[in-house]
Specification:
Number of domains: 1
Oligomer: single chain
Number of helices: 4
Shape: elongated
CATH topology: Arc Repressor Mutant, subunit A
Radius of gyration: 21 Å
Number of strands: 2
Strand content: 5-15%
CATH class: Mainly Alpha
Largest sheet: 2 strands, antiparallel
Distance between the termini: 48 Å
Length: 113
């Protein structure tokens, strides 16, 4: 299953650089080439990405991955959700850090470093 995080990251990468090869995209995302291929196929099937051929050289064919209008809308929505999740994580970490600081300060006050 294609997670929101990978969908977000792939759509972001392709919007910034639509002529990335699958191998380059996999490397940027830190995932296998097979998973990248699977994810791209899923995005194409959902109508979020359109793949078109172009010649890189006389003997090699590459694809150009373009976000469809639906793909652009999806990327904006995913960006919003991704940002909200990261802000929530930040708030939780900030609270946890403050609790740990209080714990250390209390221990130091009691003479236990």
């Amino acid at each position: 299953m294609l997670s929101d995080e990978y969908r977000y990251k792939i759509l972001k990468e392709l919007q910034q650089n639509p002529n990335l090869s699958q191998r380059e995209l996999a490397k940027r995302l830190g995932i296998s080439l097979g998973k990248t291929n699977f994810c791209l196929k899923a995005l194409i099937e959902k109508g979020l990405v359109k793949a078109g051929n172009f010649k890189k050289s006389s003997d090699k064919v590459r694809y150009l991955y373009l976000l469809t209008p639906k793909g652009i809308e999806e990327r904006v929505s995913l960006t919003h959700h991704f940002l909200q999740r990261k802000l929530n994580e930040h708030e939780e970490l900030t609270s946890e850090i403050e609790a740990l600081r209080r714990e250390v300060a209390d221990a130091a006050q009691r003479g236990r470093p």
